[in-house]
Amino acid sequence: MKIFDEIESEVQSYARSFPRIFHRAKGEFMWDEEGNRYLDFLAGAGTLNYGHNNPLFKQALLDYIEEDGVTHGLDLHTRAKGEFLQTLNDLILKPRNMEYMVQFTGPTGTNAVEAAMKIARNVTGQQNIVTFTNGFHGVSLGSLAATGNSHHRDAAGVSLNGTHRLPFDGYLGDNIDTTEYLDKVLGDSSSGINSPAAVIVETVQGEGGINAASIKWLQNLQKVCRKHGILLIVDDIQAGCGRTGTFFSFEEAGIEPDIITLSKSLSGYGLPFAVVLMKPELDQWKPGEHNGTFRGNNLAFITAKAALENYWADATFSNEVKKKGRYITSRLDDIASKYGNGRFSTRGRGMFRGINCVNGEIAGKITHLAFKKGLIIETSGADDQVVKFLCPLTISEENLKHGLDIVEEAIAETCAGLDKVPENVVYFKAG
Predict the structure, then answer these.
(1) Neighbouring-strand partners of residue 131
(2) I need a surface site. Which of 68, 80, 277, 284 has the fewest CB within 10 A?
(3) Interatomic CA distance for residues 41 and 378, integer angstroms
(4) Strand stretches in 288-359, DSSP E
């Protein structure tokens, strides 16, 4: 570990939670240099929905490299790009009656968000973007302005502007539909919120604490956007690519975003890759107006195409994810009812789930103990109070059960050592 201490920046974070030198990974497992095996319930923060080194993708990638396929091509047309676009259109967009133009941005999620907000502003002529409490959209300056977490915002060093922040679904209590508040302020010329360019939203807030917007709230949000002529951007970077049970996390709601951002598991193999999908009439970029040296990763085109062909040609995989999601939900509900003096609760959708442990100290003890037992799992939320489940969607039922057993053991042992579990603070109660 010496070299990491000597010259790697203090900005490292996950390495602090899991202080091992990892050497190999396969499926839902990782191994350190000493040969210790760990179940991975972090999965690259949602980047490895199909597991580590998926064999269905690996050979296609190796064949492409062996044939001296184009590795880097700026935004030149390549066979790899064309085949990915055709597969995306045939297997994802057309079956869902979706018509979108595809923009290849720099290979990170935050760059896709930057591009989405920029094109929304350019097309509408408006400057501000509506974003939500506990939202996370990246840490480059534009997307950071839309991010709520003060830990990240405080590192900016400059004023963050260009956004209006409104309460997410449930933020003001279960009985208050915050889209009504959005509708009110947009219709009031004295509200202080000028006509925005767009609204950007995660259907399930990953870093914000696995806060899942209800289907009705998402539908109402689209209605408000349509009523006031505002573009709707869905940030599907962590919740998309099957995490909630469908390829796009918003499909169950039946909404049609104007702009969609995708990254993380889009490549299928953990390779950097991001895109913006936009309605054709919004594609008003001038050539090169938003660019980047690594826009369009040709190696990722190969593995992304393989992922779509192997998992999204029919509904089989989607149904498997939904089945596992129901099992996770059932187990977590049972665990939450057993421990925490009735103060623990569950949240999320599909295989994007979490247990709210009230405070970060308790959740941190749980994940630390789970790691000692061979499970890699992290926390999220404003105070890191939520134990966050992001295991590969391809995980076997046996290993899924084993991972949840470890979590339950860690929670049981942690709670046994607590004098009491603090109460959740309720700020807004129904009258």
Answers:
(1) 165
(2) 68
(3) 8
(4) 345-349, 352-356
Tens of pLDDT along 19-72?
Answer: 999 999 999 999 999 999 999 999 999 999 999 999 999 999 999 999 999 999
Contact in structure between 110 and 140 (CB atoms under 8 Å): yes
Which residue, 155, 180, 150, is CA-closest to 382?
Answer: 150
- From residue 95, give the alpha-carbon distance in Å to each of 87, 89, 147, 243, 316: 11, 8, 33, 19, 15
Residue 218 has pLDDT above 90, yes or no: yes
Q: 165 - beta bridge partners?
A: 131
Strands (E), 160-300: 163-166, 198-201, 204-205, 211-212, 231-235, 259-262, 275-278
Q: How confident is the model at residue 145, as a pLDDT?
A: 96
Q: Among 104, 355, 98, 125, which residue's Cα sits nearest to residue 246?
A: 98
Burial of 376 per CB tally in 10 Å (0-12, 13-18, 19+): buried
CA dihedral 76, 82, 84, 85 (to 10 degrees): 100
User: Rounded to whole angstroms, how far apart are CA atoms 241 and 109?
Assistant: 13
Write down the pLDDT at residue 430.
57
Strand 375-376 to 37-40 pairing: parallel
Q: How many CB atoms lie within 10 A of CB 72?
A: 12
For 81-99, the pLDDT digits (tens) are 999 999 999 999 999 999 9
- Count, residues in the chain: 431
Query: Pick from 50, 35, 23, 118: which is nearest to 267 by CA?
Result: 50
Of residues 371 and 428, more confidence is placed in: 371
For residues 64 and 83, give the distance between their C-alpha atoms in angstroms, rounded to a whole number.
Answer: 13
- Contact yes or no for 236/250 (Cβ under 8 A): yes
Token digits of residue 38: 């760990």
- CA–CA gap between residue 172 and residue 429 (Å, rounded): 8
Q: What percent of the chain has pLDDT over 90?
A: 93
Given a contact cutoff of 8 angstroms between Cβ atoms, the answer to whether 70 and 407 are in contact is: no
Q: How confident is the model at residue 122 (pLDDT cuts 50, 70, 90)?
A: very high
